[in-house]
Amino acid sequence: EAGSADPKQVNITLQGPAGVQRAISTAGGVSLDEVSDHFHLHKKPGTWVVGEMLDWDAPTGGYLLQACFSTARFAAEDCLRWLSLR
């Protein structure tokens, strides 16, 4: 069944590291003015944008990953709250 695979069982073949220029995140994305404090779109309530979907810059590596994970968790908690109010 599609989507039911255990992610721990997915085989990924690495072909080698890429240079740092390729690894650095790029600016661009949804303006922070377009999202609420809970990361949902003002113009489309019930749609959340997080991590690199947002227009913000972050250092590559652990800081960028942590910011993506943190905004996603915060938005997921808000999504559950939003759904319970409906």
Could you characterize the architecture of this molecule?
- The chain is mainly alpha-helical.
- Helices cover 33% and strands 0% of the residues.
- The chain is built from 2 helices and no strands.
- The longest helix is centred in the C-terminal third of the chain and has 24 residues.
- The protein is flat, with a radius of gyration of 16 Å.
- The model has no long low-confidence stretch (mean pLDDT 82).
Q: How far is the N terminus from the C terminus? A: 31 Å
Mean pLDDT: 82
How would you spell out the order of helices and strands?
HH
How many strands, what sense, and barrel or not for the largest sheet? none
Q: Point out poorly predicted stretches.
A: none
Q: State the total count of DSSP E strands.
A: 0
* Strand-pairing-aware structural class: mainly alpha
Tertiary shape = flat
| Alpha carbon gyration radius | 16 Å
Our count of helices gives 2
Bin the helical content. 25-40%
Please state roughly what percent of the residues sit in beta strands, choosing from under 5%, 5-15%, 15-25%, 25-35%, 35-45% or over 45%: under 5%
Task: Using brief descriptors, characterize the structure shown.
mainly alpha
At a glance:
33% of the residues lie in helices and 0% in strands. It has helices at residues 20-23, 62-85. The two termini are 31 Å apart.
